[in-house]
Amino acid sequence: MRMGIFKRALSLIAAAAVATCFSTQSFAAENLTNNTVPTYGDGEYNADLPRVIDDYELLSESEEQRLEEKAREIIEDYGFDCVVMTMRDYAYYTYGSYNYNYNDILVFAHDYYDYKGYGVGKDHDGIIFVISMYDRSYAFSTCGYGMEAISDSYGVTWFENDLVSLLSDGKYYKCFDRYFNDVYEFVKEANEDKPYSAIHTKRPTGWLTRYALASFVIAVIVTAIVVFVLTRQMKTIMPKPAAKQYLKNYKEKFSQDTYLYSNVSKTAKSSDSSGGHGGGGGGHSGTSHGGHSGHF
Questions:
Q1: How is the chain split into domains, by residue range?
Q2: Which residues of 254-271 are buried (b: 16+ CB within 10 A; e: fewer)?
Q3: Which CATH number, 3.30.420.10, 3.40.50.300, 3.40.50.2000, 3.10.310.50, labels domain 33-205+289-295?
Q4: Largest Cα–Cα separation, the chain
């Protein structure tokens, strides 16, 4: 009797395990299906796509809306696409019917940009900023005119220096807001035939505030020193018993004065640096891209 109950219990446990296995496989397959990057021929420009894809939900709805408006402003003013995307893990995405799972976030960024339908004009001008929270990685992918306006040698490196620390600090909205501002400024300068480079450098974000604060502190210190020196010079001379003693002391002091002379020569420092275009590369579409990737 007990043996029969034991066997039935084992059968129930085994059935539950099998059902759980099938359920897990079905869930995984569904996720991969929903996260499939489109294949060739599906990448025609789509103006209606969102430019802020917050799959990991790092932003509030109002923050997402404000960023979306900034992206649209860049498109309207300069015909330049600007996209940001957050996700759990790019490795969950597959490449169409080829069943190619991504192990490189930069290749994923290239493909997602190309096949989803981003990029304005025949050269698909624009940039995408992708963040994966699973391994805390990021990628900047530039395309078309983006490779000139935001070059690998200067622009993308500048973006990394300006933005990645904000990701590390968890300041996601501030990071993405600054990203859209930076893109706007870089494209604006490039459209005026003076793209940012090692020769035409961009000031760090917030430099004016820091400069004003530093200038104020220096001015306060200099003023304090001047006031201190003037105060010391205004001290009353103690009276002496006789004028002869005062004259004697004055002559002794005057006879000890010395004057120092120095010659200083300066040589100008030469500079031979210049900016460049983004490097080649790309995803499966064959479209050239520039860009960098890393971790935060």
A1: 33-205+289-295
A2: eeeeeeeeeeeeeeeeee
A3: 3.10.310.50
A4: 131
Is 20's pLDDT higher than 50? no
Q: What is the pLDDT of residue 165?
A: 97
Of 62-66, 139-143, 157-161, 249-253, the poorest mean pLDDT is in 249-253
Tell me the backbone φ, ψ of residue 91, rounded to 5 degrees. -70, -15
Does residue 227 surpass a pLDDT of 70? no
pLDDT tier at 283, thresholds 50, 70, 90 = confident
82/47 Cα distance (integer angstroms)? 12
Residue 79 has pLDDT above 90, yes or no: yes
Among 122, 106, 130, 161, which Cα is nearest to 289's?
106
Quote the CA–CA distance of 126 and 148 in Å, as a whole number: 10
Tokens of 113: 């940009």
